[in-house]
Write a structure and sequence with these properties.
Two copies of one chain form a homodimer. By secondary structure, chain A is mainly alpha-helical. Chain A has seven helices and two strands. In chain A, a hairpin with a 7-residue loop joins β1 and β2. The first copy, chain A, is elongated. Chain A starts with about 35 loop residues before the first helix and ends in a 6-residue tail after the last helix. Chains A and B meet through α1, α2, α3, α4 and α6 of A and α1, α2, α3, α4 and α6 of B. The structure holds a DNA duplex.
DNA sequence: AGCAGGTAATTTACTCGTGAATCATATGCC
DNA sequence: GGCATATGATTCACGAGTAAATTACCTGCT
């Protein structure tokens, strides 16, 4: 939950972050380099106010949320230069990477967004000539969406810039660290995608 | 950028995810347990279409984004039960954990949101009696915001539920894994917060 | 055949956040 | 002192997403 600290979407400020460190409580001690990020300070504050708290999960989840917010902010830059929002690019990207036509509902699943949102985005992207629609012959409820040539070129043009940004953003971690991080996140994500329905209550 | 795969905010579906695995290209091989999550499939698709691509960063960033989206979705549940949105809770939480009054601009910095958004949220929270405002004597432009007793009780009531959700969500990782993850995210976040301004171009 | 129920896509009404003004005040400078 | 400039907070117009209804169509059952 942004561990009670919000990565909502907006600004890119850097709060005070003065504090002194204290060890984690989960039985997990954060080694040296976790020092000084915003989340550490937030956790410190919570522990000062609610000493009984197990802040272990907060340190992980808060950082995931904050990293996600900062990374997205940074990566939106090359998209804006191309006149696209990220959800729009995600939609185009889904078409590009699957290589075949997709129906609106498939696009919704693939981009983790609502059907209504997809409908609106498709309208805009169609008007801009990046995408084309075709009605299904058998079932006239469904539509098939595909990239136009300009749409494909746009995606292919943006992708390298996007990856360059990603590489730059991660340049603080060396190869093995990156691998470990990917692996740990992979097992976490696997768990979350598998049995999160149970938690959704 | 959700690694060209969108964690926008909405649904919680599970796309096909059929694929077979192939090794990473960054010089980093993902070990066994990264298998089968949604991002792995997306990465596989991109590599099939653009074989030259270095997908290493995507595997990390895509997973961070997707984890963040799923975790937020899960953790919003206890908040809705209390009639709060997450941004509202973040605001109240900032007041609670700092322990003292904050001005609207400080709240904006602390919750990483825009001033306008804070203004609106304060109006609502004030109407609900969770928060109080007081004008500054010296500088009549600034206001000071503090939690009311019901506001403080509300936060303190929600917090345990929140942490329980977090603990449950992370239960797939054992102690040492959690610690490593927190540490790696900590160094990444430190890097991002430090010199991301340079990338914001 | 004909209807009950389900599903794809869209539309509608609404909420929320944003960036760009705007107001009100404070502060530095000549 | 008095004006220029900066800053805190708010307001405004708008874009984008959502949930809930709506439309249009298919399919299985009797």
């Amino acid at each position: 939950m942004t561990a009670t600290e919000g990565p909502s979407a907006t600004g890119g400020e850097e709060p005070s972050a003065t504090g002194g460190e204290e060890p984690s409580v989960t039985g997990v001690d954060l080694p040296g380099p976790g020092r000084g990020d915003t989340v550490a300070e937030v956790v410190r504050q919570w522990r000062a106010v609610h000493p009984g708290l197990d802040t272990g999960p907060m340190e992980v989840i808060g950082r995931i949320n904050r990293c996600a917010a900062l990374l997205q902010q940074a990566e939106d830059a090359p998209l804006r230069r191309a006149g696209l929002t990220r959800p729009e690019f995600d939609l185009l990207g889904a078409l590009r990477r699957t290589g075949h036509e997709l129906t609106p509902s498939e696009l919704a699943r693939e981009t983790f967004s609502s059907g209504a949102a997809v409908t609106k985005r498709l309208k805009q992207l169609t008007e801009r000539g990046l995408v084309e629609r075709r009605g299904d012959a058998r079932d006239r409820r469904v539509a098939h969406v595909r990239l136009t040539a300009p749409g494909r070129d746009l995606v292919d043009g943006i992708l390298p810039a996007q990856l360059a940004y990603e590489t730059a953003a991660l340049s603080g971690l060396d190869g093995p660290e990156l691998g470990e991080l990917a692996a740990l996140l992979g097992t976490l994500l696997g768990q979350l995608e598998g049995r999160l329905g149970a938690l959704r209550a």
